[in-house]
Every structure is written in C-alpha cells, then in structure tokens.
Amino acid sequence: MGLEDLWSAIKGFLFPDEETRKTEAALVESIERLVEQVSPAIRHVRGYRKRLQDPVRKAEKYVADLVETIPGPRPLSIEPGGPASLVKLLFATTDQLGRLFSDSDDLTSFFQREAATRVTGLLTATCTEKTIFTSVHQGEIIRRDVPQTAVDFTDHRIVAPAATEAACRQALREGGLRLLGLRALEHLTNLKSQKEDLTEERHLMGIKLKILRDHNRSLEGMLETDRDSVAKAVRVRKLLADVDLELQTVTAALGSPEDSLNHLLSFLNNPEFVLTIQPLSLRLNWMGVKVEEDSEDPGVEISLAEMELINRLKRVALLVSVDRKEIMD
Q1: How many helices (H) and strands (E) does the chain have?
Q2: Are the CB atoms for 43 and 260 separated by under 8 Å?
Q3: How far apart are CA 209 and CA 241, in angstroms?
Q4: pLDDT in tens, 215-243
C-alpha cells in the first residue's frame, strides 16, 4: 500500500462520507431498537453495540435478501379482469375481495393520512390443497373421476401499506428484524415464566416433604404398620433435587444482562431458524386446479412467495398495488 492509499484509508476512517455516516447511524438505530425491545438492561454490558454490529448486519442482509424475492407489485382490483387477474386467481369471488377492501383498517387509514392515488402492500393468504375428482379431456377421450389437486386461498390480508414499492419493502425488512427481537424476548419471557413455575413447584414440594417428615414423627406415623410415607418422602426428595437442578439451569441462563445479550445474539446469528421465504410458482386453471405440464389446458401461472415463521405459521404472499378509489369510494 502506497502513501497515497494509506492516507485515503486514514481519511476515510477519520472523515467518513455522508453515505457512510447514514449507514452507520441506521445500524446504531437498529441496534438500539432491538435492545429496547428485548431488554434495555443489555446497555449495561460493556461494548454491547460493537458486539451487536456484525450480527445485526447479518440479520438485516438475510431479511433484505428474503424480502427481495417476494414478487410484485401486481395490480389488484374488483373490476372484471382476464383469467390472469389476481381476483380470478386468488379469490373465490369479487365479493370476497370487496370485503377485504372494506374491512381493511390499514388501507383506509393509509388513504386518510396520505394523498397518494395508489398504495402498495403485501397481500398474504393461507394456501391449502385438496384432492378432487373431475373429468379430463385427452384428445377426443373424456376420462372421468381423475384425481386432481385444487388450491384454495383463504384468510386474505393486506399489510405494510406504503406509497411506493421501495417503502413497502423497507417496512417488511424492518418487520423481519423486529421479528427476530420478538423471538428473543419470547425466549427470555419463557425462561422467566419457567423460573417462576419451578420456584413455586420447589416451594410446594418443600411443604409436602415437611408434612411427610412430621407425619413420620407423629403418633399416627409411629403406629402405622406399613412405611408408605417413608417411600413417599424418598420420592419427593428425588423430585425436589430434580427441580433444584432445573431451577439452577434456568436461573443461570437468565441471570444477567450479559445472558440477555447472548440470547439476542443467538437469534440474530441464526435468522433462518425463525423466518424463511421461498419462491412458489403455481399453474392453475379457471377452477383453481393445478395444471400438469403435459395438460392440454395451458392454465395461468402465478408467482408467489411462501413465507414461513418456523413452527408457527405459513402463508403465501406477493406485493399488490391498489387504487385509491377501490378503498375510499
């Protein structure tokens, strides 16, 4: 590295350009938002921002790459359209779409705040498949009771409304990062709840053991011909020891701001265990039945994204664009 290159590197470090300053400020904002969401006590950990920088960058890139794979935006309207229109492909009837528009507080609120003529949002739905039996034309032959796969889309929602596609995708990226923080917070909350339950269980077992001990020393215990209470006391001591061990483990995992930071880092470093988005391409006929590649019916192809919150929820999605008159008229 020559002197000129070295000076450029030093100058860039000491006097970052406007774009670099904005990027660093946005990173700090993301970090502080996560810390406030999960556990403000993390701020007591020395160097917490530095430790969170790379994991937050990694998580942000992961979420951003996923969001970019969501297709669209495509126009969504109650107006009659051709066989490739979204209302024909994703809704059973135009009334179903009309109810979605009329019941959407998010879309109504957006147009009440903004003077925009269109809104871009994320349309999501539950996608289910079922086997039906229909007649199929193969040349001049009609085959009856042929098993085919019908696709139904239900429980539609439009979320993250924004004036532009870029703003909508940005809202989704921010929502993805918040999701990782939420999972970390849930994990910590579950640990706290588990600790409270174990503490209560330990207290009750201690009382039970005292009752058994006092019973053995009482006249009733002295006169008993069997020694069942002694065996019960042994079992309770064993259970109490197990609870003590589990309580120690949970307390150790929950103990300090450092532990809270480590839990947050775990989720940021492994975002694929929380959220995935996969491309989904379907070719459907006018009845919403999957069309095979060798079928004479060309069907209509639609590109979607399959979004999965691991072990929680799976929905299909795409970006849509809706005219103001669809909502406010």
Answers
A1: 11, 6
A2: no
A3: 12
A4: 566 555 554 545 566 677 677 677 767 76
In a domain, 4, yes or no: no
Residue 203 in any domain: the answer is: no
The answer to whether residue 54 is domain-embedded is: no
Strands 74-75 and 313-323: parallel
Other CB atoms within 10 Å distance of the CB of residue 95: 10
> Which range has highest mean pLDDT (125-139, 252-266, 307-321)?
307-321
Q: How does pLDDT run across 278-322, given as a tens digit for each residue?
A: 999 998 887 788 887 766 677 788 999 999 999 889 999 999 999
Domain total for the chain?
1
Cβ-contact 318, 70 below 8 angstroms = yes
Give the C-alpha distances (Å, rounded to integers) separating 322 from 73, 113, 123, 227, 302. Answer: 10, 16, 11, 77, 18
Q: Which domain holds residue 297?
A: 86-177+272-328
d(CA 15, CA 23): 14
* pLDDT band at residue 212 using 50, 70 and 90 as cut-offs: low
